[in-house]
Amino acid sequence: MSVFPKISLRLEVENYLKAGFMNKEVVSAFGKQEAERRFETLLHNLSHPPSFTTVRVNTHLASVQHVKNLLFDELQKQFNGLSFPILQHPDLQDVLLIPVVGPRKNIKQQPCEVLVGAQCGSAVLRGGHVYVPGIVSASTFMKRGDVVSVYSDIKGTCKKGAKEFDGTKIFLGNGISELSRREIFSRLCELKGLGVRMMEPVYLSPSFDNVLPSYLFLQNLPSAVVSHVLDPQPGEKILDLCAAPGGKTTHIAALMHDQGEVIALDKISKKVEKIKQNALLLGLNSIRAFCFDGTKALKLDMVKDTDGEPPFSPASFDRILLDAPCSGMGQRPNMACIWTLKEVTSYQPLQRKLFAVAVELLKPGGVLVYSTCTVTLAENEEQVAWALKTFPCLRLQHQDPQVGGEGMLGAGLSPEQLKQLQRFDPSVVQSQDRDIGSLRDCRTEDMIWLANKDCIGFFIAKFIKCRST
């Protein structure tokens, strides 16, 4: 029996998701009972972390084997000598996989409690410590050095600074308080440092807070697949249309051996600064990041050139990645989503605006990769069907590597077209409790299979532009 419930959604949102996963094509192919089982498995798995922590090696600065050795030593320190296997992905040579142990159910809950917000709680479930901004409330008597139990306020109903809370909360594990309650909530100054150092998390997962920061980038497995599917080549000019925080941008530059030009756009200045910081940290010089709205990135007149800055002339890029803003309904772990149906369904028009711009900016013969971190049919397969109908110049392409499953039925795409898509579907695997002992007995190929299947919800489509628009 799981220690966590399935993801908590507004009824209107749950019904919307269910309608997509139980559309006529799906029910006809698998039967109503199997379609219902898959949907319930999806809701359950979304509230739990993936089976593996995934990190991408910055091959621009070091070899995978060298970084793997450094990481092994780091994990030995973190887990007091426990030996965790570190696997190199066979199809993604720059990706390392570390299994997650849990949920562990023998952790004794403490009388002193710390309550954190849902976003902070999700980070803890994936190996993070608790930082002060994420703390919502703490027991009255909490002092520095106390052993505390950490809980997640998954529905966001606790008032900041409360001394007690009787609402819905999920146990995340135990840690050591780095500050007293009084210091956290004194409001004399805004604190940003470490609040609770997790010692007994329910899910045992490595922390990557300041761990080999120039060599490793913490990244979900499908997010690492995307850049390989784009297949950037040295000397090309590539656009990352919605780039922040820069994980895929820096991956693209590394795959190009930092030779060529990678243009990264985002319309939020703080996020653009983060892209620049990541590029600097990883030693990549081919990246140019701009604070600019991707929907306006196409130059509509023939005024003088802007010296390589946005907006850009038509057919300016060899390859374009559109990792589109989306509803994020594939992110894990996510124990509660308070979004309305209007919010969840608001992304499709924006995605189409960005897509239309990307098609114009792409050179004939160029490659466009579209991706999202959501599971909705409307933002994924339906967008592909719309794109193929709206832009006759586009053709779907086979993806290499093919790590995820094929696309979902329901958007009117042919079986051949569905096979050219990649959908990472958390409903594919029934989650199981994992301990150190079971990892020692597990075959490497079985662990790789599980890593490929039990990850976040994600979608990838690859197009080639056959002629000008």
Task: Please give the structural blueprint.
Layout: E1 8-9, H1 11-21, H2 24-30, H3 32-46, E2 52-57, H4 64-78, E3 87-88, E4 95-99, E5 113-117, H5 118-125, E6 130-131, E7 135-138, E8 147-153, E9 170-177, H6 181-185, E10 194-201, E11 216-218, H7 221-230, E12 237-240, H8 247-255, E13 261-266, H9 269-281, E14 287-291, E15 317-323, E16 336-337, H10 341-344, H11 347-361, E17 362-372, H12 381-390, E18 394-396, H13 415-419, E19 422-424, H14 436-440, H15 444-453, E20 458-465
What labels describe this entry?
8-stranded mixed sheet; 469 residues; 6-stranded mixed sheet; alpha/beta
Provide a quick synopsis of the model.
The protein has 469 residues and is an alpha/beta fold.
* Major sheet: 8 strands, mixed
**Can you count the helices?**
15
Q: How many strands?
A: 20
Arithmetic mean of pLDDT:
94
- Unreliable stretches: none
Q: Distance N terminus to C terminus?
A: 55 Å
- Residues in helix, %: 25-40%
Backbone shape? globular
In terms of DSSP E residues, the strand content is 15-25%
Please state the structural category.
Answer: alpha/beta
Give Rg in angstroms.
Answer: 23 Å
Oligomer: single chain
